[in-house]
């Protein structure tokens, strides 16, 4: 869920498959390759772990950041390099695994990551009423410097990678009619990535976390006068 700016930058030390000949014909959702300079700075200033280059932890972190980049920024499934669109599945908190087409039907991006069974009046953020564009705009506005990601611990290596992660950012913009607090918002969770032996292709992704830890920090700000709280019209982030 990291944020990114929409242009600039010739490379990224934490992600692959953004630039180069292989991406010459890639269709980017926002018109150009993402730029992660702001969120990379946030990551470097706020991370709690610095993994040795080439270590399993560093490789897993690079893989996850690259996967997030593709899921949020590449328009066509055929342009994905981290997954095989024909057999890849995603699930959240034990829900039934879904394929890329079904994920897109849910609104993709943040909407698929914030699925909930709560009654509509208690959701705080309702992914069923958002599009990929509106959800992206809501979170990039709330986190103008991005929502950084670090891998805290890797419990097992390929083919079933189990890891603990931390996301964080500063709410410096409004969210769903709530004023910015300027405070850090953090989200901790676990994930299982089923991969091939070389960690070049992700076959299955499972995430486990409490979305309330994210939304709680975003909804605590004062209600802004005249702001409507249903589906967001406010301008998990191109800077993920």
Automatic annotation (TrEMBL):
Biased composition, class Basic and acidic residues, residue ranges: 10-27
Transmembrane segments: none
InterPro entries: NTF2-like_dom_sf, Pathogen-related_defense
Lineage: superkingdom: Eukaryota
SUPFAM superfamilies: NTF2-like (SSF54427)
Annotated segments matching region Disordered: 1-31
Protein's name according to its UniProt entry: Pathogen-related protein
């Amino acid at each position: 869920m990291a944020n990114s700016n929409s242009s600039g930058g010739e490379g990224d030390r934490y992600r692959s498959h953004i630039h180069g000949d292989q991406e010459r014909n890639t269709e980017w959702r926002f018109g150009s390759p993402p730029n992660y300079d702001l969120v990379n700075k946030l990551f470097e200033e706020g991370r709690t772990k610095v993994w040795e280059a080439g270590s399993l932890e560093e490789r897993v972190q690079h893989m996850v950041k690259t996967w997030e980049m593709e899921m949020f920024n590449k328009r066509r499934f055929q342009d994905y390099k981290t997954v095989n669109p024909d057999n890849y599945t995603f699930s959240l908190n034990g829900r039934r695994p879904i394929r890329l087409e079904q994920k897109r039907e849910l609104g993709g991006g943040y909407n698929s990551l914030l699925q909930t069974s709560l009654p509509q009046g208690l959701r705080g953020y309702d992914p069923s009423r958002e599009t990929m564009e509106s959800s992206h705009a809501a979170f990039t506005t709330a986190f103008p410097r991005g929502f950084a990601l670090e891998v805290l611990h890797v419990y097992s290596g390929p083919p079933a990678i189990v890891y603990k992660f931390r996301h964080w950012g500063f709410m410096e913009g409004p969210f769903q009619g709530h004023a910015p607090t300027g405070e850090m918002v953090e989200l901790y969770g676990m994930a299982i990535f089923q991969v091939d032996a070389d960690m070049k292709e992700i076959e299955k992704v499972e995430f486990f976390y409490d979305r309330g830890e994210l939304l709680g920090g975003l909804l605590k700000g004062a209600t802004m006068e005249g702001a409507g709280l249903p589906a967001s019209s406010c301008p998990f982030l191109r800077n993920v």
